[in-house]
Amino acid sequence: MFIDNQLYGFLEMAAILCNIKEGDEVIMPSYTFVSTANAFVLRGAKIVFIDSQPDHPGMDAEKIEELITIRTRIIVPVHYAGIACDMDKIMALAKKYNLFVVEDAAQSIDSYYISPNTGEKKVLGSIGHIGCFSFHETKNIQCGEGGMIVLNSDDFFQRAEILWEKGTNRAAFFRGEVDKYSWVDIGSSFLQSDLLAAFLYSQLENINAIQEKRKNIWTYYYTELKNLEDDGLVKLPVLSKTSTNNGHLFYMVLNSNSERNEFIQFMRKNGVYVTFHYQSLHKSSYFLQKEELKKLNFAEYYSNNLIRLPLYFEVEVEQQNYIINKIYSFYRKTRTFN
Ligand SMILES: *Cc1c(COP(=O)(O)O)cnc(C)c1O
């Protein structure tokens, strides 16, 4: 395990560890942050985007196999909102076609996959060959910029140590295994600053309190907004039997893009900063310079209609009540807290 200045750096390290070369193909969801793709593009990979699930923004594992070709090297499951992808299926495909699995666990610290086949509970980010976590300021555990890579093999570990040491065998030198250190491989400056590491350390010491608070905020939104879902006005996150929920983000899916725009404006006018995110990468101008446009209906659906409500450690119940009341007023329904 290494701690880094950002997860992005570690996805790049993952791409190097998997020996990604020009023309290799990497399968990942279109509905994700651009860093997931950049790390592999920097090594010359061709990105093959996959659609979201109908009832969840995460990748639709049922559609992976049809995208696998002779050039496919890696599958990158992104555990959106800390909700696990179908890891049994993904690991089985990786085995069948001899592929690597690099989990983008940026959003999924302290969340678990519950295997529908064995009932076993596994930490997200520890199931694939490599897992990459983020400690960016928007994540549950944060230090401004930071990340962590988790490696499931000694070979990866040995090479990662060299990449980490800027392409030298300095770590072996310090252990007394070689009498001088020299340039033995490519490498980069992945190190995190001491100050950020200290900040991160105290966040990690408080992980239980942070997680409890975030999950409470999440559950309160869910319970209080359920009426709107029952009335068909919005869709709330679908609770999954194969995943725990780590309270990373709370989203709602609105009924149309124009309604979403009105909603965002209404909330901002009332002092509540709600946001959307992830313009589907398969429709990005950069990607379309190289690839043809294909249609990924659900990725586009979430790009157009999903919003996120404020969810961070400092949010208090009174603020949540205010936000929830404003959401009900937008839908012209009454819901007043005492
Ligand atoms: C935040 C995030 C990243 C980027 O993490 P950094 O630490 O900012 O590099 C990548 N992928 C996903 C899914 C994210 O949510």
- Could you tell me the mean pLDDT? 95
Beta strand %: 15-25%
What is the overall silhouette?
Answer: globular
Number of strands: 14
User: What is the topology, as strand order, of the major beta sheet?
Assistant: 1-11-10-7-6-2-3
Reading the helices and strands in chain order gives EHEHEEEEHEEEEEHHHHEEHHHEH
What radius of gyration results from the CA coordinates? 21 Å
> DSSP helix count?
11
Structural class comes to: alpha/beta
Small-molecule binders: pyridoxal-5'-phosphate
Q: Which parts are unreliable, with pLDDT below 50 for 5 consecutive residues or more?
A: none
Helix percent band: 25-40%
Biggest sheet details: 7 strands, mixed
| Spatial separation of the terminal alpha carbons | 48 Å
Structure description:
The chain has 338 residues and is α/β, with parallel strands linked by helices. Helix content is 36%, strand content 16%. The chain contains 11 helices and 14 strands. The strands form 4 sheets. Strands 1-11-10-7-6-2-3 form a 7-stranded mixed beta sheet, sandwiched between helices. Pyridoxal-5'-phosphate binds at residues 6-8, 32-33, 35-36, 78, 104, 106-107, 134, 136, 147.
Ordered list of secondary-structure elements with their pairings:
Blueprint: E1 2-4, H1 7-17, E2 25-29, H2 34-41, E3 46-50, E4 52-53, E5 56-59, E6 72-75, H3 87-97, E7 100-104, E8 112-114, E9 121-123, E10 130-134, E11 147-151, H4 154-164, H5 170-174, H6 194-205, H7 207-230, E12 234-235, E13 250-254, H8 257-269, H9 285-288, H10 297-305, E14 306-309, H11 317-330
Helix pairs in contact: 1-2, 7-11
Bound molecules: pyridoxal-5'-phosphate.
